[in-house]
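Example (one chain per record):
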Amino acid sequence: MPIAIAALLAFAGCASAGPGLNAASGGPLVPVGEVFSDVDEPVEHPEKPSLVEAADERAYLGDLYVRAGLLPEAIVEYRRSVEIDPSSAARHFRLGVAYQSIRCFEEALASYREAARLEPASAWAHAAVSIVQAKLGRPSEAMDTYEMVKELDDEMARELLEVLMQYGTFHEV
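Predicted structure:
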């Protein structure tokens, strides 16, 4: 399975994600920094941090919790991050990944949709929406979203189609 989709599925605990690709094992995480343009590592600030810096620090704490396999704690930090500064697609995406990891698919879908709304050119965000729609038993929505991914990134669309076929979504539409 292609690494892009495998990394996304790894957070959902899917067996098809492959060995070593999950947060608890310390395996590769979804490369959020490569997916969205607004991700920066937090830095120490001598003065009071700005809201964006405070939100980045919360997201970074969430990342650390994910790496430690503490997903409920990660969700708390990611939610704080998007509450502080809701303008970051990357932070919404991270929250969606954490929700998906604990099988809170409606919450994951809402987070991924917000990421896609904030960064409409992100094939990653739209692919995540499509995968969760398929998991929720919404095949026609998943395929509509797949079409959006196809317009944005042919390679990602091919990978996504493989996943949707595994869920039976492609054949149901």
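Caption: The radius of gyration is 16 Å.
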